[in-house]
Amino acid sequence: MARILTGIQSSGRPHLGNILGAIVPAIELSRNPDNESFFFIADLHSLTTLKSGLQRQEFVRAIAATWLAFGFDYKKNVFWRQSRVQEHTELAWYLNCFTPFPMLSNATSFKEKSEKLFDVNAGLFTYPVLQAADILLYDANIIPVGKDQKQHLEMTKDIASKFNQSVGETILALPQPQIDERMMTIPGLDGMKMSKSYNNYIDIFLPEKELKKVLKKIRSDSEGLEEPKNPEKDITFKLYSLIASESDVATMRQNYLNGGYGYGHAKQALLECMLEKFAEPRRIFNYYMENEQELEAILVAGETKARAIAQETIAKVRKVLGFSS
Ligand code: ADP
Ligand code: TRP
């Protein structure tokens, strides 16, 4: 049985890019009866950039509600908040002491973030160590992530082997990253990678009127209504082809090529398609956002399952390091 594990930082409400690029594919993997999935909300990681407790709580809820809205089976699997299982921070400290300083200072994501951000704190620096702890606590074998996380997973393996070598026993299992090089990059409103940091994202859970306003902002060329248009170059068409049925995509392609079909028509079709395709996820999302206690109960039950496993690993680590008898 494969143990799959992945986390999403609670640094914003999930957008279409997170959903189609990370959440939906992970849920598909979790549907294989031979797999056991460990999906968590990396709220401790979000503290490296987000300081507001109120916002964090809202984002944690929104991320949890999104996993549930897209059908994650929290009963069969394990679903929790990283901060509620203290073993994550405990193991991260131990691993810090086995992580060579240059490994962290050469990390690409640290270099990028420290050039961009005003607040370059030590948490940003040791971010990959906490991520290693997240993975190693649960003996996870498969870690589905995007290309940007490849280096973090290599570091996890290096840290685990350094630890094992140093204590002279194989205590921590080395994970297998599952990086899909072809993984889709969902374009944002401006055609760049959709990201909360570029403020070009689509929040599919917005009320209809607001969603319509957002979709109107999708960049398009300036051809007039009557002119034929190139679907391959257009962002609205790209987004539509990610979610609409094959035959609807073919119809829209033909409309573009024929002319007499404006970008406004395409955006309206995209809106209708989103409302239809995501009707059930939107309903479930709103349900959990309104029924906080139910969501809380699900996460608390998940914490209990996660903690039981994390405690087994931590007990072995404490023992070999001389912190317990
Ligand atoms: P953001 O760029 O909005 O800050 P994160 O870095 O928090 O998003 O990403 C969370 C997950 O969603 C990661 O697994 C990432 O690979 C995936 N993801 C984010 N944006 C996109 C996108 N535009 N296309 C595909 N996957 C994405
Ligand atoms: N760093 C990951 C991201 O930004 C989130 C994350 C934290 C994670 N811990 C993890 C992903 C463990 C996979 C496994 O997307």
UniProtKB/TrEMBL annotation:
EC number: 6.1.1.2
Residue intervals passing through the bilayer: none
InterPro entries referenced in this protein's UniProt entry, alphabetically: aa-tRNA-synth_Ic (IPR002305), Rossmann-like_a/b/a_fold (IPR014729), Trp-tRNA-ligase (IPR002306), Trp-tRNA_synthetase (IPR050203)
GO biological process, one term: tryptophanyl-tRNA aminoacylation
A GO cellular component annotation in the UniProt record: cytosol
Name of a matching Pfam family: tRNA-synt_1b
Listed CDD domains: TrpRS_core
Matches recorded under Gene3D superfamilies: HUPs, Tyrosyl-Transfer RNA Synthetase
Family to which this protein belongs: Belongs to the class-I aminoacyl-tRNA synthetase family.
Name of the molecule in the record: Tryptophan--tRNA ligase
Gene, per the UniProt record: trpS
